[in-house]
Amino acid sequence: MKNSSTNKLTVVIKKDCPTCLLIEPVLNELVESYRDKISVYVQDDPAFPSSISNKIDDTSLEFSYRNQIEIVPTLISSNSEQEVARTVGWDKSEWQRLTGLSNLGTNLVDFKPGCGSKSQDPGMEEQLAARFDSEMLSARKVELAESEDEIEACFDRGWSDGLPVVPPTSLRVIRMLKGSRRAANEIIGNIPPDNLPCTIEKVAINAVMAGCKPEFFPTVLASVEAALQDRFCMHGLLCTTYFSGPVVVVNGPVIKRIGMNCGVNALGQGNRANATIGRALQLLIRNVGGGLPGGIDRAVMGNPGKYTYCFAEDESDEDWATLAQDRGFDRSDSVVNLFAGEGLQPIVDQQSRQPESLAKNMANSLQSVVNSKLYGLADAILVVCPEHRRVLKQGGWTKADLRQALLENLMTPGADIIRGAQGIAEGMPEKFKNKTLNKFREDGLHITSTGGKAGMFSAIISGWVASGEKGSQLVSQKIQ
Amino acid sequence: MTSTIMLDPTAELNPVEKQILPRLDSLAGATVGLLDISKPRGKEFLDEVEKYLVEMGATVKRYMKPTFARVAPNELNQKISIECDAVIEGLAD
C-alpha cells in the first residue's frame, strides 16, 4: 500500500500510554505507506516502538512544547507550509480521513481516548517555557529577594497605577506574547511622552501587569498603535491640565471572541476584557512612556477613566451603522477606536417616542459639553442606549438622520453665547456675535451605542478641549 | 522557596544626560528668541519680557508654536537654534 498524498504526517506518542501501545500496528502501516513523509516523536522511551527504526527522541519535550501537544497520541497532517489538521487519541475514522488510508487499523476498536502529553505534566509548562522560549525575552530581569512580596515589589518600584498589578514573570509574558504572531523584539513605536522605543515584549509585560489574557493582546496592540497615530496627539493628551485620557471603543467580531461587555453596565466594572485592555494602554504610557501623574501629567483633577476606559459597541442591530463603519471599516473588521475624552454625562429621556423629540433633547444635553457657551472647542461621543435606538428605529431614523438632526438643533446664534452674554464672562469671542455657530467642529461629533436593554438613558463622553488638528482627533486601528 | 524573577516593564533607559550649552556672559548684543506657546495672554507676558531684554542690550526675535497642545515642530526648533543665541519659552494662563 503506497500513499499518494503530498501531505506529511507527524505522530507524537509515549510508551506510558495504553492507547499508544494499542496503535503500534497502525504506526507500522503508516511508516510503510508514508516512508520519509512521516515523523514519529516519542516523549518517554526513545526505544519505543521497537518495530519502528527511525523514530525521533523527544524526551526533551521541545517538539511537543513548541507544537502545543496536549494529548498522546496526536496525529498531525501538514502540507509544505503549515499544519492543516490534527486529531488526538485513537479515533479510527479521523485517522483514516487524515491519512487518506481507508483500511487503516480496521482490526482495532473504533475509539480509545489518549493520555495527557508529558509536556502538560504539572509544573512542566513553566520549565519548558523557561528552557525553550526565554531567548525571545530581552527585558531586564529583576530578581526579588525571597522575603519580598511580589505585588508590593511592583508598587515599590513605581510600576503601578495605584491598584495591584499582576507580577510580570517570564512565563506570563511568554504566554502573553503567544497571543499574537508578532515578534517579541519588533519595535511598535516610540511611546510618549518620553518618546522611548517600545518592543512588543514591553507591551506584553504591561498587558500582563494590567491583568490581560493572551487573547486580548492583539486588541491591546491595536490600541497602542492607535495612540501612536499622530492625529491622536497622545503626548499632549498625557501632559494636559485638562481631565481627558484615552477612551477605547471596540468594534467587530473580536467583541464576542474575547468576551467584551457591550450590554448591562458596559462602561462599568466587572468585565475582565473591558477593564484590562484600557488599563494596559495606561500602564504602558506610565511605565515605558514615563507619563507620571504629578510629573509630566499635569491634570488638575484627572478622571477615573485614567485607570481604564474601554468598552465595546452593541452591534446586535444590523441596521445600526457602527462607529467603525462610520470610520470607513467593514462590519467584519475588528477595530479599536481611540478618543481623547473623559467622564460620562447622562441624558435621561423616558418620554420621547418620536425621534424628533429625542434628538432635540440629546442636542440640549450636548450643548453643555465643556461649557454651554463654548462652541467648536471639544469633540464628543454620544452613546445611544438600546431603548433610544429603538425609538429612532421605530420612527424610521438611521444614525445619519440622528446626526443631521443633532447638528441642526445645535446651531446657535452667536449673540447668545458670546462673552458676557447671559451674565457670564466666559463664552465665545465678541467677533462671533452676528454669526450662527455649531457646537461641534466638522467630524467632531461621534455616535456609538452600547448598554443594557432596559432603561432610557443615553450618555455623552465629553472630549478634550484641544480637538482637531490643533489637538486630538478620534483615530481607528484595525486589530490584526 | 525560590525567589521570583520579574521582567522590567519600563523603557530601561535612564535619560541620557545632556550637556547644557555654554551660558552667555552678557545679553548685550545677543539675539534672544521669545517663544510664545499659543496660550491666552502669552503675548502680553512676552511683551513685558521683551522690554527688559531690550534694555539689557539684546535683540529680540519672536516665535510662536502653532498650538500649545502639541510639541513644537522640528522646523521651528531648528529656526530658533539657527537665529538665536538664547531662547525663552513663554508659558501663560
Number of DSSP E strands of chain A: 21
Mean pLDDT of chain B: 87
Q: Supply the number of structural domains of chain A.
A: 2
| Proportion of beta-strand residues of chain A | 15-25%
InterPro entries (chain B): UGSC-like_dom
Protein name (chain B): UGSC-like domain-containing protein
Domain UGSC-like (chain B): 6-93
Organism (chain A): OM182 bacterium MED-G28
Structure characterization notes:
The complex is a heterodimer of chains A (480) and B (93). By secondary structure, chain A is an alpha+beta fold. In chain A, 30% of the residues lie in helices and 19% in strands. In chain A, strands 13, 14, 15, 16, 19, 20 and 21 form a seven-stranded mixed beta sheet that branches. A five-stranded mixed beta sheet of chain A has the order 3-2-1-5-6, covered by helices on one side. Chain A has a two-stranded antiparallel sheet with strand order 4-9. Chain A is elongated, with a radius of gyration of 29 Å. In chain B, 26% of the residues lie in helices and 22% in strands. A three-stranded parallel beta sheet of chain B has the order 3-2-4, sandwiched between helices. In chain B, strand 2 (31-36), helix 1 and strand 3 (59-64) form a beta-alpha-beta unit. The termini of chain B are far apart. In chain B, 17% of the residues are buried. The A-B interface holds A 137, 139-146, 148, 150, 153-154, 159, 167-170, 173, 191, 194, 196-198, 201-202, 205-206, 209, 233, 235-236, 240, 283, 287-290, 466, 470-472 and B 1-13, 15, 66-71. Strand 10 of chain A pairs antiparallel with strand 1 (5-7) of chain B. Chain A: InterPro entries: Thioredoxin-like_sf. Chain A: This is Thiol reductase thioredoxin. Chain A: It comes from OM182 bacterium MED-G28.
